[in-house]
Amino acid sequence: MKWIASTIAALAVYATSGSISPAAEKPNIIVLMVDELGYFEPGFMGGKKIQTPTLDRMAAQGMVFTHLFAGAPVCAPTRACLLTGKHSGHTSVRVNDGGTPLRADEVTIATVLRKQGYVTGGFGKWGCGGRGSTGVPEKHGFDVFFGYYDQVHAHNYYPPYLIRNSEEVPLEGNDGRTSRKTYSHYKIHEAALQFIRDNSDKTFFAYLPYTPPHGSFRIPDSDPAWALYKDQPWPEEPRRYAAMCTMIDRQLGEILTLLQQKGIDKKTLILFSGDNGGANYFESPEYPRGFHSANKHPETGLEYRGKKGELYEGGVRIPFLAYWPGKIASGSKTNLLCYFPDILPTLAELAGAPLPAGIDGISLVPTLLGRGEQKKHDFLYWEFGGWVAVRQGNWRAVKPNKSNEWELYDVATDPSESKNLAAMHPEIVARMQEIARRESEPVRPGTFANRDLHERDRRAKFGYHDDPSYWVPANPSKILKKSDLPKK
User: Fold this and answer.
1) Which of 392, 369, 373, 390 is nearest to 381 (CA)?
2) 6, 279, 314 from 274: Cα distances, Å
3) Do residues 72 and 308 lie in contact, with contact meaning Cβ atoms separated by under 8 Å?
């Protein structure tokens, strides 16, 4: 395909001699986080079915983090951890209902960077505060945010409108139901490219929490990525999912080309990741870990237990790479234990910004730039929906949501968490329990001044935004269909 060839050609220009030195000036920063991409699905992580040529080349010319974990096993809480530098025992967003807001006083990456003179833009799925709340992005450091504020709204790629700074932007030819003309993700990506163009002579932060491949598995038949999969002898949904991943890969290539055209490719750090553990999509007796093998290496058979929504390793393992030509050593890889709370302090250090109080992350700059001594975590901590997990070195303790019993695993010898060693090492379990007691504080979510616009956005998924007789459950346990909606 032409776009693959052009992407490879553009990336070849980025190859450098790899001299590592501190940044002479604050870098532009792009954080592209895709929704639900599994750990082993991209080619650079071992995937064999989904084509990701841009990512594969970036991984070969950048740094791959093999042990950088999500902040939580689901969408909204993991975004809160990334944005605030806090782990999930300290964040204000710990449920995945789509609209629970950040508190008004919470500092985000965008808050920190804007104070350093960055122009800040976000494009995609927010998930940390619906319209009318204290958590909307324009109250948390973003000059502009365009996309979805509510996660239920984001399940539809053909909604009647998207949101820009809490204002509705109609999408031509969409009614949220049967009329589908404007593919929302194209509009979001176009806006992200325009933001980079408009601010290429400034210092910018572009946060791109892109929604594909999550939600309904839709991609226009005219998209070049669909042509790569439409004739594969697979069920349709796995083909659509693969095409959505390859579409994102192509669009990342478009971002790289734009940076090169503007002469700012070597001034720009790009971080790419999934948002939480893979969901084992399209599982079957033949593919028990999902058709695209999100948490099982297709060749070696290495398998991580659990999936999205759980706190075994499979629920928080994500693909993650860093790319910065001339600053990050080409072809490097690290097994440093780290997670989403570390992104804020890393970017703050690169921008020369002071750290906000109360964060849990550490800066990864020594690892990224190969200079100085890298500070290490004593432990990593997660909680969600009754689950609790603590990792300390090679020990990993887990309390599942329907149990009061703690499990203990040595992931150095048992990465699949199959041999519970809790009975053999009660002293280690007790130590992990004490960490969990200390690190979990009562949640204090943000608030809504008025929920009307937020509820309107939730109904917009189904095209009933103007009909208040339809409502969406506050905590949908699945991707709802119109038939699931009860009337008042």
Assistant:
1) 390
2) 25, 12, 12
3) no
The sign of the CA dihedral 269, 275, 277, 282 is negative
**Model confidence over 138-192: pLDDT tens digits?**
999 999 999 999 999 999 999 999 999 999 999 999 998 899 999 999 999 999 9
* Cβ count near 450 (within 10 Å): 10
Please state whether 350 falls in left (phi above 0), alpha (psi between -120 and 50) or beta.
Answer: alpha
Q: Distance between CA atoms of 34 and 273, rounded to whole angstroms? A: 6
Residues 393 and 379: their CA atoms lie apart, in Å, by 7
Domains (ranges, CATH) in the chain? 26-377 (3.40.720.10), 381-439 (3.30.1120.10)
Please write the tens of the pLDDT for every residue from 344-380.
999 999 999 999 999 999 999 999 999 999 999 999 9
Rounded to an integer, what distance in angstroms lies between the CA atom of residue 267 and that of residue 273? Answer: 20
Peptide bond into 341 cis (omega under 30): no
Residues 197-214: pLDDT tens digits? 999 999 999 999 999 999
3 state SS of 387: strand
The one-character DSSP state at 445 is: -
pLDDT grade for 481, boundaries at 50, 70 and 90: low
DSSP-derived pairing of the beta strands 63-65 and 268-274: unpaired
- Cα–Cα distance, 405 to 22 (Å, whole number): 47
Distance CA 110, CA 207 (A): 9
Token couple for 394: 């090679």
d(CA 37, CA 118): 29
Q: Is the pTM of this model over 0.90?
A: yes
- What's the CA gap between 398 and 410, in Å, rounded? 12
Residue located via tokens 């019993």: 405
Is the alpha carbon torsion for 54, 59, 62, 68 positive or negative? positive
SS (HEC) of 202-249: CCEEEEECCCCCCCCCCCCCCCHHHHCCCCCCCCHHHHHHHHHHHHHH
